[in-house]
Every structure is written in structure tokens, then in C-alpha cells.
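Morning!

As promised:
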Amino acid sequence: MGFTAGFIGLGSMGSPIAMNLIKKGVKLYVYNRTKDKTEPLVRQGAIPLSSPQDMFNYCDIVFSMVANDLALQQICLSENGLLNNSKKEAIHVSMSTISPMLCKELVEKHKEKNVYYVSCPVFGRPDAAENAKLAVCMAGDDLAKMKVKPLLEFVSQSIYDFGHHAENANTVKLSGNFLILNVIEALAEAFSYAKKSGVQIEDLLTFLTLTLFPSPVYKNYGTIISNQQYDPPGFKMDLGLKDINLLLRSADHLKIPLPLAGILHDRLMTGLAQGRENLDWSAIAMTQMEESGI
Amino acid sequence: MGFTAGFIGLGSMGSPIAMNLIKKGVKLYVYNRTKDKTEPLVRQGAIPLSSPQDMFNYCDIVFSMVANDLALQQICLSENGLLNNSKKEAIHVSMSTISPMLCKELVEKHKEKNVYYVSCPVFGRPDAAENAKLAVCMAGDDLAKMKVKPLLEFVSQSIYDFGHHAENANTVKLSGNFLILNVIEALAEAFSYAKKSGVQIEDLLTFLTLTLFPSPVYKNYGTIISNQQYDPPGFKMDLGLKDINLLLRSADHLKIPLPLAGILHDRLMTGLAQGRENLDWSAIAMTQMEESGI
């Protein structure tokens, strides 16, 4: 049985995910605000649409992967938005990193239109998206999740179910990004201490990843920081700030102090003030090195 | 060929390490300030000595594992200390977590007495010591390291060489302990956020250790924090404070600001102020949970 689906948002993550769906034989309708981003996909057989509201005319499952809360609100709720022309039993699979608060709100708005909203934020940089190696956090209605799963398997290496409450997947995503950025800052501090003490950063990194931290996050970011290779960015600094701000606002809402997250926020802010918005978010390590006189 | 060695300092780490040496057939001379700690080892065949200065009468290689800088200074330099009766070509294998500054000083003092000082701080909690699963960071004179290595293999699962400068192994040890404590605090913050958001901590931990952080540190401490099981302690809070203070003093000396380490220091200080000195150092997570109203 062939699949038909829609995809909204063809940025550095959306494009490779959509491409993997096409490669797996999915008939894919695509929409992007900037039209020329649809072209590589159209060349592979995707069918371009001129607005999100046409999506549910052609398909029961629509994915979206956009930059932030505002973009997703517009995609869903604006005059030519996805929900303006909804279809009973249709499913919106939202892969963006957005606030749990907006997620909750969108679940309600979708319900009013008889559309299921499934939260599916993903972990992995663009190369992981290309290689269908993403880790997907999924939450929402059980039947909807079951229908969506075969398609998610085309773009990911693992799918984790966080239950009925769609916003829980977003909470996990924000927690994960916080933990990743925390590793970056901690490695930057440890490396600046080690280097100024006379220890080779490479030796320390090898030891850490063979013993205490045999983890892709430590390996990847440890290597980037050790090589000081923040360009090309896998995840840009301004997107990192967006995510830490989502976490901090969400934690404010719930009344949770997060001392480490406060430091990480300031590091990103410093990086942006220093004109590093086009570097990888791990370039916050440059600030630590500079402050240490290295 | 049988080995003969000495062991000074039979605390929660020293005792199981010494026991493993005996089990491997090493003829072991032992010394501990509190005498009754030698008894279980003597029952297994260890020979007790009444002061460190007798050690080099009987063996060419002496291990030490003591609580802090002051204890190691006394073991080495006091009137009845190890160096008071040294022997040419003898080796002192120092496993304690001490400051790189004291290490440098001790290397010189040992050299004056024609004794090699090899730094061998270890990673692993008492259960890892018992099971000979420690990770050893080794640095110092090449010939001395070569002689010591077969004995270290009896007590560890891996040995990493950080070169000629003995203090480099201590730098790595302090960096590692900083990174571990940082994980504890980061998990505590992420877990308090997740829990108050409605996500099961256990689900988040499973996801993290299967994807981003398949690391023993995340698994062990994530489980301890999730279960709130800080007793019995694997590594007590006051020892954690000692190590973070060693890092901060050493970083001060080198002029390196460490913002995360400052937060970790204050967390430990708060834990001690709250009377938690006999709990595991991961009990700093209790403070984060309490502050979050959980």
C-alpha cells in the first residue's frame, strides 16, 4: 500500500526528512513559505502546494517542521492555514521544537476541527536527518500515533513514546537540548582548564569518551570544540538561544529555578553579541577559551 | 615471578584495591593511620607495618590512597614518612585525588630522595574498586610506569597514560570529577522540569540513556536521582566539595574562570549546610527538587 502525506517547512531539517519520505515511495505534497526550497523535492517527484490549507484536500497525514512558535501558529491558524480546511480524522504531525504551552493550545485548536495533533520533535543534526538516523520523541492520541509510526520509521532510527499528552514530547525535547548545551559548556570549561594546565585536549577527550562518557554528544561536540571548527554550523547559535528561552519561559511558567540554564542562556547571548550567530551553538566554547586567556 | 608491594591508606577505595592485589598473589605490606582497618587484609595475608617509613625496607613499589592533600603530605614528608627511609629506584604510586600543585611539589621531594613518584588517580566508586573495574589515569617517569603497570592491571579495567608530567593525571582526575558533578546537577534540573511538567522521570532517563547519553555516569546517577536513593553513599558530599575546591583553587592559580564549577560548589555547600554530609554527593539534586517545590 502506498502512502500519501504532506510536508510543511523545508529548512535544513525539513528538507532531508521530506526527501527520505519520497525515497521510501511516499507520494508527498510540499509547502514552504520561500518557494524555491521546494524545487529539489519537486525534482524528486514532490507536488508543490501554494498554501497549507490545501494539504488536507490531498492527504490524511501532514508533517510540519518550522522554525519557532510563531511560524507554527501561522501554519496552523492563519487564514490560509492547515486548520482552515481540515478533514475529519486527519493527523498533523508536528516535528518542530516549540513550547509545551503552544503545543497544549494547538492540541485544543486541532480537536475543535477534528484533527489529531501528534507531537514528534526530533533529536539529530541535519546529517542525521539525511541518513534517517533521527531519534523521535512522540506523544499524542494512540490511534493517531499508530497510523503515523510507519512513516516516522522511514526517517528515524528510533521512536520513543511519551504517552497521550502531546506536550510531554516537547518537554523532553527542551530537556534534551538543555542537557546537550550543558555538555558543550562543561567540556569548554574542562578543556580550558586542561589546556592551560598542560594536558592535551585530545588526550582528555579520548579518555572521557572511552570511559565516563561513551556518548555521541560528548564525542561530536568534544571534537568540534577540540578542533575549534564551528563552521559550518549543524545547529546555529540563534536557534540554540530560541530553545533555551523556550525552556526558561516554560520553567518560569511552572515555577522551576534552573541555575545552569541561566548560565547557558548568557553564554549564547554573549556569543550573539560577539557576532557569532552563523556559527554552531557550540561556539559558546570560544567565549570560555577567550575568558581563560587561551 | 611474585610481586611484593606496599599499600598506605585503607579507606573505602584503598581497602578493596589492596584486597585485589592480595587476591592476585601480591605479597602486600600495609599501613593505615587507624590500625583496625588493616585487620581484614591481614586476615588475607597482608603484613601490617607501624609506620610509612618502614615500607621501602620491604618493597620497591608502594601505593597510597588517602583522603586529601594534607594526609598525603604527612604520609610522604613527616618524620616517620615514606621518604624518611627511601631506597634508590623505589616507586611511589599515588592514587589519591589531590591538587596538581601538591603533585608537582611531591615529584621534586621524591626526586631528591631518588624515589619515582607516579600519579595514578582512579575513576570508579567502591563497587568498581571491588570488582577491579577502575579506570586509571597514569602519568610520570616512563620506566617507573612500566614497572607499575602489571600491578595496576590487577585492580583496574583500563589504564590511560597522560605522559611524563605526573600532575597531568591529577588535572584529568579533577576535570573528570567536575564533569560528573555537572551531569548530576544538569539531570537534577532537567528532572525537576520534566516532573513538574508531567513527564515521568523514568521515561526521560530511559530515553536519554538509549539515545544521547549511553554513558555509565548518566545511567548510574540518573537512577540514583530518579529513585532518590542517596544512602548508602558511593562518594560522600564532603569529598565532592574537597574535589571541586581542588579544581577551583587550581583554576584560580592558572587564572581560569569556571562558571559551572561555581554553581556546583554552591550546591555542595548548600547540601552540607543542610546536614547531608553523609549522603552521596548526588544528593545535591535534593536541593534542586526542593527549590522547585517538588
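The mean pLDDT of chain B is 97.

Hope this helps with the figure draft.
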